[in-house]
Design a protein that fits this description.
It contains 23 helices and 21 strands. By secondary structure, the chain is an alpha+beta fold. A hairpin with a 2-residue loop joins strand 15 and strand 16. It is elongated and about 115 Å long. The two termini are about 55 Å apart.
């Protein structure tokens, strides 16, 4: 299934199920959760009772039974339309979850029997596997559960999860060792250690995340709900006082009639913010759904909302700002060192380096005719983010003691420099100048040392993405600060940062440096977002406000993040922020529209219900509505229909525009504030004309 595919906005099957759900949501236990729409719900019941009373006692209500029935029907429609919007948003999420559920297969697994190197296995159904079990997955097999590759290299079809048809390579070691249950091995074989128990897999968690029918409200949503409740209470108190005021006015003026209860209920429903109240939940659910369409699984609506408030982005250089294929390009030997000797040392020192850069050094050396296997007794020193070096300790010469191992090291220049100095050596000034020159070109210099002597520099080249500078400029206009994170030295980092146009950079970054930087920004009151895929990224991901873990990353990274990118594209962080901004913009725009259109409904209803007592109020009938009853009914009908017309906007969201907060506020006020003011005047007038034309009032 392609996660990026999107259902039509009003898919027939979704509409049918949403219509049924709209009626089911009329349950008072559901309605009271939305205070604004609960008032509409109570008003619908009250007007229904008033209609029954009007049928039995026609002279008591002050309004014709048919008119009271019309008001009641449209109030019920208002409640149903709000329910329909929420149910439609939930239905789209449930459809995505159903598609995901279809990926789960009750497959057979080949559980390895200890000792694993014996190659023996037993057939076992996937639900019988447990965390820690080791399985063999061969070509054309389906991976039974999420796990980490501990042996082997294979090509895997992950299109069922990511929607991308191109196969990916998974292998042991590094940050590309995670495999997902439900994907299929296309070639070769893997030995996988299961990292979850049945029911806890990534696919299971995805389904749980997408099924957001009982989604927790986010802080901003709670704050907006409190505001809407406050406005509703204000209008409720105002409306309640109008009845005694009307009784007093009729008695004092000896003219007109007391305002009917039906008219007061209609006034209350039209003045409270029913538009945003009816669409608020749908906007939140649709925000998570839109994130899902971008192939990003958000663990909660809180994470999506936080993405919209982010003002600092921490971005890894490799794969995000650059193309990510940083590869060894040139060997630069020190004076007196041959290319062959430098290449041999770089090759051996990189054999334990599982990173793409380490492997590219091995490839470069072998292309140059250097292919020396490690001798028996060689001690391998794997690359780590802390040491930023890899290497080997070559066995001692015949007759020497064991402590005479010759250390070969390859890594960041400063790290190798410290290593050499601890052994009593020094880095020649010519090599330091060569490293600086490589860094100024925007490449990455790596030093290679043999014992106390630095043999030369390996130049790694990468290319800055062509459109990344413009995207950073857009983020800057939004007030978002971009920070590049890299393990490169200061000169290389500065050159690439200048070319890419980021606001700041952190060079020679170790995991603890990332964590410290995030805490620093958070102490200043900023919200921080970052991406990561390795176990060493987990602490920083757990600390960040928005943490996007790569789908191909380690289990620790996925568990630390609050979002998972199925495409494993580090630049997706920019899209995540844009989606979060769009969610907040949609909510703000609909709130502005909802509050603004109350003004027009005020001009429609207030003159209509008091004009018999105060004829001077006819001057407020600026829309020249046909009659008081037509004015009230037209306003109620418009109040219901506007929810339907705004459902596409709530589900699709307001289009994201990279502008500052002040410009965005002006734009919203101009479009949704002015639009919310003008639309009801036009809509109510058109409905009034239609009611008169067909003779309903």
């Amino acid at each position: 299934m392609q996660m990026k595919s999107s259902l039509p906005l009003f898919d027939a099957s979704l509409v049918r199920s949403a219509l049924w759900a709209a009626f089911a949501k009329l349950d008072p236990r559901v309605q009271w959760r939305n205070p604004v729409m609960f008032i509409v719900y109570i008003g619908s019941i009250l007007t229904t009772l008033l209609w029954a009373h009007a049928l039995s006692f026609p002279g008591d209500t002050g309004m014709a039974p048919a008119f009271v029935l019309a008001i009641s029907i449209w109030l019920w429609f208002t409640a149903l339309f709000a329910n329909f919007a929420e149910a439609l948003a939930e239905g789209r999420s449930k459809a995505q979850a159903a598609s995901l559920r279809g990926l789960r297969k009750n497959t057979w697994a080949k559980k390895m029997v200890e000792p694993f190197h014996g190659g023996k296995w037993l057939p076992l159904q996937a639900p019988e596997l447990r965390r820690g079990d080791v399985v063999l997955v061969e070509a054309h097999d389906v991976i039974p559960l999420d796990g980490e590759v501990i042996e082997g290299v294979a090509s895997i079809d992950e299109s069922a999860i990511t929607g991308e048809s191109a196969p990916v390579v998974r292998e042991s070691g590094g940050d590309f060792s995670a495999v997902t249950g439900g994907t299929r091995v296309l070639s070769d074989w893997l030995v996988v250690r299961v990292t979850v128990s049945p029911g806890e897999s990534f696919l299971d968690r995805m389904i749980g995340m997408v099924e957001a029918a009982k989604r927790q409200k986010t802080p901003n949503e709670i704050a907006l709900t409190i505001l809407l409740v406050a406005l509703t209470l204000v209008f409720l108190m105002v409306t309640v006082t109008l009845l005694p005021y009307s009784i007093f006015s009729v008695g004092a003026m000896h003219a007109g009639t007391v305002v009917p209860l039906t008219a007061l209920v209609a006034l209350l429903v039209c003045l409270i913010p029913t538009t945003i109240g009816g669409l608020l939940s749908a906007v939140g659910v649709a925000g998570m759904s839109r994130m899902m369409q971008a192939n990003v699984i958000a663990t909660s609506g809180r994470a999506v909302e936080a993405a919209g408030d982010v003002d600092v982005l921490l971005l890894d250089k490799t794969g995000t700002i650059t193309l990510g294929n940083r590869r060894a390009n040139t060997f630069l030997p020190a004076p007196g060192v041959t290319q062959q000797r430098l290449g041999r040392a770089a090759l051996l020192a990189s054999l334990a380096d599982e990173t793409p850069e380490g492997r590219s050094i091995v490839e470069l050396a072998r292309r140059g005719g250097i292919d020396e296997p490690a001798a028996e007794g060689t001690r391998f020193v794997p690359f780590t983010a802390q040491t930023r070096m890899s290497g080997v300790d070559l066995p001692a010469a015949p007759g020497a003691v064991d402590t005479d191992h010759l250390p070969l090291r390859k890594g960041a220049v400063d790290a190798v420099r410290r290593h050499v100095e601890t052994l009593g050596g020094a880095v020649p000034a010519e090599l330091l100048r060569a490293a600086d020159e490589v860094a100024r070109r925007g490449s990455t210099p790596l030093a290679v040392a043999e014992g106390q002597r630095v043999l030369g520099i390996v130049e790694l080249k990468d290319i800055v993405k062509t459109d990344i500078r413009e995207r950073f400029a857009e983020l800057r206009r939004m007030g978002i600060r971009t920070v590049m994170i890299t393990g490169d030295n200061q000169l290389t980092a500065a050159a690439i940062a200048a070319e890419a146009g980021v606001d700041d950079f952190l060079a020679e970054a170790a995991p603890e440096d990332k964590l410290a930087l995030i805490r620093k920004y958070q102490s200043e009151g900023r919200l921080v977002a970052m991406t990561g895929d390795g176990t060493n990224d987990a602490p920083a991901l757990a600390q960040a406000d928005v943490a996007v873990a790569m789908g191909t990353g380690t289990q620790a990274a996925k568990e630390a993040g609050n979002m998972v990118d199925l495409d494993s594209n580090p630049t997706k962080l920019l899209e995540v922020v844009e989606t979060g901004k769009a969610l907040l913009m949609t909510r703000g725009s609909l709130t502005t529209f909802s509050i603004a259109n109350d003004i027009a409904k005020y001009f429609a209803i207030i003159p209509a219900i008091f004009v018999s007592t105060y004829p001077q109020l006819a001057a407020l009938n600026v829309m020249r509505l046909a009659s008081p009853s037509s004015a009230i009914l037209s306003a109620v009908i418009f109040n219901a229909l506007i929810i339907v017309f705004l459902i596409p906007l709530a589900l699709k969201g307001v289009r994201y525009r990279p502008v500052g907060a002040a410009a965005l506020l002006r734009r919203n006020l101009a479009i949704y504030g002015l639009g919310g003011l003008v639309a009801p005047f036009v809509g109510i007038k058109l409905i009034d004309g239609l009611l008169v034309a067909i003779g309903l009032v």
